[in-house]
Amino acid sequence: MSKTHPSLSAIKYALLVVPVLDYATTTAGWAATLCPDQPVSGQTASCRKKAEEIVVRSRNASFVVSSSLSRLSGAVLKERHLDTLGDVAERLPNVSFTSTTQANPVIMMRGLGGPEEETSSLYVPFMLDGIPMMSMALGQIFDLDHMDVTQGPELTKGPNVFGGMVSATSRDPGNRFGGSLDFEYGTGNRRRAVMSNDIPLGPNTALRVTVGGEVADGYVSNRFLDRKDTAGWHSWFGRLKLLHKDSAGGEWRVSLHHVLNHGGNDYFASPTLALRHESVNTERGMNDNDYWAGSAQYHRAFSRKMIVDVALGGNATQWKSEIPESVFSARTGFTMPTRQAGGTITVSGSSGTLDWRGGIFGQEMMRSTPYLFDMSPYYLSNTTAVLNNANVAGFAELAWRFSPSWRLVPSFRVEHNQWSMSQWSGLQTASVPEDYTILQTLPKQTASRTVPLPGLKLEYHPQTDSGLMQFGWISYTRAYMPPGFSPHAVMAATAQTPFDASYGNNLEIGYRLHDRKDKWSAEVIGYSNLISNLQVVTTNANGESVVATAAKAHTRGMELNATFKPIRSLTLSGFLGLTYAAYDRFLFAGQNFSGQQLNGTPKSSFGFSGTWTPGDGWSVNVNVVRRGRTNLYPSSTLVNDPYVLVDAQIEKKWRWWNIAIYGRNLADARYLTRGLASGEAVAANPRLLGLRVGVTY
C-alpha cells in the first residue's frame, strides 16, 4: 500500500499541524479506475494497480472535502489546554465567540452566530457523538478523539447548518486494559484531574470509562467582598462509551455523558474594571450548568454500494444564571432547562462514475425560557415561555465523475420546521412612584415553514502520480434559518409577532496543494454569502430584548493556511483570515444600522506557530495569534481593539510518564468577550500558567 500523507485542512488550527486520519475506502467518487477497460488483461491489471495507488494517497478525509474544515485531534485539545469551545474558537481563522461566563461560549463563524440564548435557532450547531447539543451548557471539553470545525452552510450532514458546525467525537475504547491519569495545577488556583480506563469485555467488545473534576478560584478580584473566588467554579464530568463489533461487520457505539458545573457569576463590570479583572459587585451570583447526553451509533459497510450510518440520542441540559444584584441594581436571572431528542440516518455508496449520499434528520427540542428583572418597588418584569421546535429534513447528494479529474456534485435538502411558543406570560409591576400591575398572557403561538434548499459543487482533483497533490472546488449553497418567537419580550404584541426566516446564498471557491513528501502544504478559500432577513438580537424602543431581522446583509472574505517542514523535527504553520460582514439594509427602533459591521466579528485574524520535537521525548511549541478590531456582541457601543495571544508549552515524555509546563495568553492581552448597551462588559481570561503531570498504564 502506498504511503499516506496528512491533510492541509488539519493545519488550520493555529497551534500546530494536526494530522487527519486517512480513510482508504473505495466508496468515494474519486476511487474509480483512471483508464478505460483494455482488451489485454495485463494492461488492465496494470491500470487498476496504478489507480489504486493514487486513490489511497489522495483519499484523505479532509483534503478532498469541498468546504473549510479544521480538525483538532484529542491530543491537541488536551495538550494545548483548550478546555472550552471559546478557547478553540479564538485560535482559528474567521471563528470567534461571545460569552457571559467562562463555561458558556456561543460560537460565531464568518460573522454569523449569537442568538442561541434568546431563541433555540442555531447559526452554528454543536454535535456530540452524532447528536445535537446545547453548546452553552457544554462546560468542559474532555477525552475527545477529535473535533471538526466546519465553516459555511452544509446540506447533507444531518442538522440544518447556516453559518457552520462544530462536531465532537469522543474517544473509542481500546481493546486492551489500560488507561491514563492526569493532574494539572495553574493560575487562578486551578486544579484538574482526569482518569480514563479501557476495559475489554470480550474479543469484540470494550468499555471506556472517563471521570474527572476541576476546581478553580477564577480570575476576578472582588474589591467589595475582598475575595478572589467570586468567578470561580467546581465541576465534575464523566463518560461511559461502549464499542461492539458484530460478526456481520457492524460497529455499535453507545455513549453516556454527564457534566455538572457550579460557579459564581461575578463577570459583569464596567469595561475599565473588567479589563483589570476586578469587580465591585456586592454578591457572587450563580452560574450552574448540568447536562446529561446519550447517543447510540451504528456503522456498517454492506458493500461498496451500501454503507449505513445511524446516530440517535438525546440530551437534557439546565443552565441556572443569577447575575449579582449590583450589576443592574436589580435581581436578574433565569433557569433554562432544555430537552432535545433526534438523530440522523444516512446511506451512501458508489457505482462506476457515480456516488451518492442520502438520509433523513429529525429532532424535537423543548426549552423553558423564564426571565426575571426585579428592582422592586420601582419596577419588576417577569416573563415565562416554553419554546418547542420539531424539525424534519430529507437530504440527498449525487456525484458524477465525468472525467478522471472532474466531479460534479448536486445536492438537495427539504427542511420542515414547526415552531411553537406556549405558556407565555409577561408581568410588569411597581409601587413607587405609582402603583400598577400589568399581566399579559398569550395562547399557544405557532409558525411553520417548509423550504427546498439546493446546492451544487464542481470539484477538481487531478489523478496524477507526480509529487504534488491538488484539490479545488467551487460551490453554491442555499442556506436557511427557521422563523421563531422572542420569548423575553415583555409585551404580548411583541411576543406574538414571529420574526422572519433567514436565507443565504453562499458562494465558495477553494484550492489546496500538498507535497507528497510532506514538506509543505497550502490552501486558499474565498467565500461570499448574501443574506436576507438576518436574525439579530437587539433591544427595541420599549427596552424589550427581541430578535429582529436585518432586511439585507452580507459576509465575504477568505482564509489562507500553510505549513512548512524544513527539517523532520520542525513544523512551521500559519493562517490568515479576513472577513467583512455588514448590514446592507437594517432599520430598527429609529436607528439605521446599514453599513455597520456585524457584532462579534473581527475583520482580520492571523497566526503562526512552530513545533519542535528534537527527540528523547521532548517537544516545544510556540504559537501567536493576532485578532483584529471587533464590535462586541450584542452591543455595538463597546469595541475590542486588536490584541495578540501568545501560547507556549514545553513537554517531556518518558515511557509511562509525561510532564509539561504551559502558558496561555503569555502577553497578558486584555480584551472583552461580551458587551451590553447599558455599559457592562465581560473580559476574557488573563495570562494563565500551569503544570501538567500524567501517567499512562
UniProtKB/TrEMBL annotation:
How does this protein lie in the membrane?
Answer: Multi-pass membrane protein
- Domain TonB-dependent receptor plug per the UniProt entry, residue ranges: 66-153
Q: Which Gene3D superfamilies match?
A: TonB-dependent receptor, beta-barrel domain
Q: Which InterPro entries match?
A: Beta-barrel_TonB, Beta-barrel_TonB_sf, Plug_dom, TonB-dep_rcpt-like
Instruction: Tell me where in this chain the TonB-dependent receptor-like beta-barrel domain is found.
Output: 230-666
Q: Which UniProt keywords apply?
A: Cell outer membrane, Ion transport, Iron, Iron transport, Membrane, Receptor, TonB box, Transmembrane, Transmembrane beta strand, Transport
Where would one find the signal peptide in this protein? none
Where it sits in the cell: the answer is:
Cell outer membrane
Q: Which Pfam families match?
A: Plug, TonB_dep_Rec_b-barrel
Answer whether the UniProt record assigns the keyword Ion transport to this protein: yes
Query: Which protein family is it in?
Result: Belongs to the TonB-dependent receptor family.
Q: Which PANTHER family match?
A: FERRICHROME IRON RECEPTOR-RELATED (PTHR32552), TONB-DEPENDENT OUTER MEMBRANE RECEPTOR (PTHR32552:SF81)
Q: What is this protein called?
A: TonB-dependent receptor
Q: What is the lineage of its organism?
A: Bacteria, Pseudomonadati, Pseudomonadota, Alphaproteobacteria, Acetobacterales
